[in-house]
Amino acid sequence: MSIAIPTPSNSFTRLADFALRSGPEDIPASTMERAALLLLDTLGICAASAPMEAGGIARDTALALYGTADPAMSAPMLFDGRPASLAGAAFAAATQTDNLDGHDGYNPTKGHIGVAVAPALSVLAQHLPGLTGREALAALVVGYEVAGRAGTALHATVSDYHTSGAWNALGVVALAARLRGLTDGQLRHALGIAEYHGPRSQMMREIANPTMLHDGSGMGALVGLSSVIMAEKGFTGAPAITLEAPEAESHWADLCKVWQTELQYVKPYPICRWAHAPIDGAKLLRARHGIDHEKIARITIRSFAESIALYPGMPDHSARAQYALAFPVAWMLVNGHIGLEQISGEGLADPRVARLVALTEGVVDARHQARFPAQGRWADIEIEMQDGSVYESGDLNASGGPDAPFDAATICDKYMAFAAPVLGEARAGALRDAVLALPRTDALFSDVNTLITPAP
User: Fold this and answer.
1) CB of 79 within 8 A of CB of 448?
2) Average confidence (pLDDT) over 387-414
3) Three-state SS letters, 385-396
4) CA end-to-end span of the chain, whole Å?
């Protein structure tokens, strides 16, 4: 991409007008309502991941490395309460959430936005007690709209497939610039700093060797908020080429015309999105034919290459389980459900699941590959029984996407299933009600923040 961008581009000017000067009334009501549901969904996964090992490590790391003696630059960590720097608290929550792969995503970016922008909103709002629910949602929408376009611009203009942290950092910058009142110049520098320092980590490397690195969103949140503070203090950064280079202009042309916030998918399972269509297929066939998993002789999964590249065997830790293919399909066939208990602890060593994993074959299919990533995450699954019967799912797109989005009741049910075991029914229910009330004119975001900062 070209890098000589001496004056602000038209794309930057449009972004600055939207991020810094638009009001909640400039955003469609349906977009605001969807943003509230996406926030609820993200907070449910953040709460559920709080007791997990990766979340504990992230929060302890934030205390050790990203603290501050300045109260104006600190905030309590989500579902923990201990104070860290603004960037450190956002890093901890994003890393924690990233390590339970049940948060929202956007098909064209092959990645995730809410995981970084929702924590940034919470930690910054600690210093904005009068922040209304509608203004909070408007800031969240700014984060989604900017991050999504930065992601598609990056993927279209470089050869490597980078993790979400490489581009959702720019969404964090836009959200934070709005809430902290940055000037156009400061916003431009912050975007440039964040893009320059964003973690351009290789996603397929993590798919091949699943670890707690996941999708790089913790570092995306850290870099995004750090860049805003640096720009406030006068640090300069070269313009963000994923925004301002001529090659990127087409990715920003529909800003404020197409609302990407409404095009995010919501995951029904805490598993990499690439495995969801096969899981849906297993669920469909199990229900339709009353399949007895003990009588299965063979399972064939046909999907796109990235899906088939997911871990094929029995995982030995939760990170590998979340980036597996045969394993979650087997769990769906065994008991019709995949939650935290299936991807951790004793769920990783179930002999019934191990038997089915050994019977599973993955095949790259050209028609599913052609649909990836813009058209969704497609697959089909075929199950042969010991008596010779063969059941076929037909082509399926992963559920919960923009072609068939989950309604509010389904998202609320998912949220409670993940949040209530950690927070308790009463606190989880109160948080749900506070988030759903944000689009109202009398709502304050502090009603949400008081429920998400204390430790479970």
Assistant:
1) no
2) 97
3) ECCCCEEECCCE
4) 47
